[in-house]
Every structure is written in structure tokens, then in C-alpha cells.
Specification:
By secondary structure, this protein is of the alpha/beta class. It has three domains: about 15-370, Aspartate Aminotransferase, domain 2 (3-Layer(aba) Sandwich); about 385-510 and about 575-615, 3-Layer(aba) Sandwich (Rossmann fold), CATH 3.40.50.150; about 515-575, S-adenosyl-L-methionine-dependent methyltransferases (N-terminal domain of TfIIb, Single Sheet).
Length: about 625
Amino acid sequence: MLDMKIPQIDPFIGDEEYKAIKQCFVDKWITEGPRTKLLEEKLLGLIGAKYGVFAPNGTLSLYLALKAVGIGDGDEVIVPDFTFIASATSVIMAGAKPVFVDVNKDNFQIDVSLLKKLLNKHTKAIMPVHMYGTMCDMESVCGFAKENGLLVIEDAAQAIGVKYKGKHAGNWGDVGSFSFFADKTITMGEGGFVTTNNSEVYDKLLYLRNQGRKERGTFIHPEIGYNFRITDFHSAIGLVQFGKLPEIIKRKKIILGWYKEKLKGIEEVTMFRPFTGYDWIPFRVGLLANQAHQLMGYMESKGIQTRSFFYPLHKQPAFKEVISHLIKDSDFPNTCYAYDHGVCLPTYPTLTEDKVEYICSTIRSFYKERRDIFYKYYDNMFADKDYTKETKFIWEMTKTYGVGEVKKVLEIGAGTGNHTKEILKRDIEELFAVDIDPEMVVRLKKKLGLKRNLKIVEGEVDQLREKNFDLTLAMFNVVTYIDSEKQLKQFFSQVYSRLKPGGIFVFDVWNGVAAIKDPPKEKESKYKNVNETIKVKILPETDFTLQKVRLRYMFEIFKDNEIVTEGEYLLTQFLWMPRQLDLILKRVGFEKITTRSLNDLDKRSDSFDWKVVYVVQKPLKK
């Protein structure tokens, strides 16, 4: 599929639109006429608004909306920092000043909680922008606006067909603005539409868009106005597109489902998601991705056209003269995060499943190539770990508290085999080394080769039929990869059922209490490997609410002081609290023997020990 070419957008147009335009020539109605009136009626029926007027495009639609509600010189309008530039330039065009506010991090809609501090005597309106085919929290926006006497101008350019509680986007505020550009859910090539439920605002819209008069054919102009009319050519396309809207929505939701399914398991990406209960007709399928801009470059090289998320408005060179006060990136962390991590994937109605599969497999390949560096230099990074000492401790615990000699061992999370190698030095009859990571298993087999008493297994513990183990160990963070109490109980139960009575289970775990007292910090290390220098930076992101630490391993490989390779690997660790572990172990049936500090195995662990080793036993039958 090297010759695959997948555009970012591909308008859902064909012979129907061509015939509709041709009919305009036949009817000799090429200015704004009956087709425009019919499309207006259909759009108002869908949106649920009383009144509406067209504009040549979405930017002028916003301008009309602002002017019709009285926004002008000296006024300020609060605009999200995360939106297309037209949301702000339309405010400037109206003679007012845009004031930027950050968005939330879940779906990059306007953050209402930040609005209060931006208010002053010049603030006249809020412009919520419905991003990526879903909606802002309009109940909160309208509630805040009412409380503070502000107007609400909705930018619903990307939200045709989108509703919350049965109410359409663009029909919540004082005015709403829609766009029908080529990449929108339905298109007229160009076009905008302003809606309102206020008759006085509607009156003003009519004057503004039609040279200061309500009707054509007169040369008396009661007010100042302009020519913001459209043509029946545009409306002819719009009518056909409107008829296709149910099919477009259906197809877009199917495509979204394909993406959700095929992107599963790629830890480096998360999908944009709407608020619960809100419609989502994906204008774009948005991803938050590590190394997003490198990923987009890689995808472009594979024939896939991408788009980044929007560049923060407060950083736009065009607004240097507009922003009179000092603005810092730290005031807009979520908008900056969105641009740094956001990737828009193709999502047009004719996109086929095989192309979505190609897009997702390309994303998967990008991260696999970056992750391979982690596997390649794994042993270099952990060369100073004392596997001999840890294995000796495990053996001493098993001999002291277990039943008889250790002959049958189960190692879970064998990795590249560093513990495995030490265990094989002992007088054992059988060692089952298990790992779920295929790449680790390949390296394990390569390192240890064939051994009479070694069986290497790729898969989960529950796939293993062998039982009656004297000892089971799960070292090197196996338990911290498990992120729910239900899954942890299942894991402990699987281990319990495979131990013989009196058998010992040893595992290490990150201590959630210690993490709260002393959160993980950024760390940078260097390692030598023949003629290479490996620089590894570990960037932790800790979420104490979810009890998780996300570790980003950033690699730079140097030869002769020049970077020759870069890569990244992600690990998510769960911060188990000792009380949680004790309770689950007890429910499964284990008896706790001791807990030790991994850094000093002779010392009993306390709440300050980051890594703790648990030694537990399956009781003897009474």
C-alpha cells in the first residue's frame, strides 16, 4: 500500500450536486432566489430557530451575528484560545477586542470556570465554539452569561446536526453561526448561516446583509448595510447536501467506530471524546498523541494527509497588536497541550474501512519503531540492578517459610530474562518463564537459548495449565501494570490456584503512599553501549485521583557526539496502596509473611519506601 493516498477531506459530492447547479442555468435564476429560501426553511427546521439568514462564508456569518447584537468599538468578547482564527478575527472586524480563555483538557471546549476573572466593564459577550462535531457545556455558558448580563454568540461552524437534550447547537445563545465550507459536515463550497430567536436581531440581520434594506428592488436604504448575500448555485448544492445529511451522519459514526476499534491498545494515543450525553458527529477524528508532529510527518510520508489541532490564538503573530497586556503560555495550558499533542485523522463519508485500517496500522508502526529502542537498550538501562541479590532473597524466603526444596518455579513477567538467568543457577527441576510481551519473549529466547528445565511461555497466567508450583515470582513491576481491583484479584487468584499448599509468592510493587509523600520526578541518565551513548530522560505524569503514573522514556542515541536515533516508550504504573493490597491478598486467601524495601531487602518496608517487595504464602491445608 505504498502508493496509498488518503486526503484529509474529500467532499461527499457527485452528479446530484452537478445537476442541481445545472438546473439553476435552466431556470435562469443565478442570484439568491427560491433555492436559497427553501434551504433556509430546511435549516431552520433542523436547528429549531425562528429566524435565519445566509452569509457568503462562516467568517462573515460570525461578523453579521456580532454586529446584529450590537457588538462594536470598545467592546470585549471572550473567545476560546483553541479555535480557528476566524472566531477572533470576526470580533476584530466588528470593531471589538477578542479576549482569550483556555479550554478544558477533556474535549477542548470553553472552560466556563475561567470566565469570571476575565470580566470587566468592557465585556459584552461570550463566544463558545463547538469543537470537532460536538458541543460546549451550553447550560453552564448560558447560566454564566445570564448571571453577568452577557450576550452569547455561538460559533457552531463544525456542529450542524449536533444536539444536547434535543436542542441543536447554535440555538442556545442570542445568535448562532454555521459554516458550509468544503470540509464541513455538509457543504455549499462556501457559505454561512446566522440563526436567532429574537425578531429585533433578525431585523438587524436583514438590513446588514442586504445593503441596508430588507427587500431588493428598492433604492431607499434605511440603514447602513452591505452585500452578504449568496447565490442559488450555492443553495442548490446545499439542498442536495441537506438531503444527504442522514447518510453522512451514519457514515461518519461508522468511521468513528472503526477508528475506536482499530486504535485499541496503542497506549501512546487517546481519542478526543465529547461530554457524556452530547451528540458527536465527528467533523474531525481527533487524537491526542505523543510526538504528535513527528507522527504527522511519518503519516504524510506514507501517503496520509493529516492536520494538527489549532495553534493557540494567544500565540498567533497576527494578534501581537491586539493583545495589549502580557499573556503567558501558562495561562493556556490546555490549548498549548492540544496543539502539541493533537492530530486530526481523515474522516470523510467515503473513507473505507481498509483505508482506516491502513491509517491505524501506520500509527501503530510509528510507535513500534520508536518503542523498539526501549527493547534494544533495556538491559543497558537496568544493568545496575542486582538480580543476584534479589534472587538470593527470594530463595531464602522460600526455604524459610515454604515447604521443602524449591523444584518447580513460575516466573511471571520474565522480561529479557535477567531474573530467569539467576534462577536457572539454582537446583530446580522446572522453570516456567511467562511474559505477555512478544518482543520480550523473543529476546528472552535469544538470550537463554534451549534449556532442559526451562519453558518459555508467551501469554497470560490464566493460559497456563501447569500447577503445584513451589514458588511464583512477579518481579519488576508486574503488579503495577494492573489498574483495577477486580483485575488484581483475578491475577492473585490465578497465582493462588497454581501454587501448591505452602507455596510462596513474591512480587514487587510501587507504594502509592510513598508516591503521595514524594511524587516521582523527572530523571535523566546516560549509558554506554560499545560505540554508542544512550541518553534516557524519564518524564513522569502523576494522577493521584486515578492512582497512576505515566512514564515517558525519551531516548537519544549518540555516535561521535551526534544524535543518530530517537525514540520513545510509555509505561503506565498503578500506585497501589498497601491497605488495598493487604485486603485483596486476604480475600484471595494468601497469608502475608513480610514486606521489604526493594532498595534494602534486609529492611522491613515503611510508608517512605517507593518500591516494596511482598512475600506471601498459600496456607497449608488444615
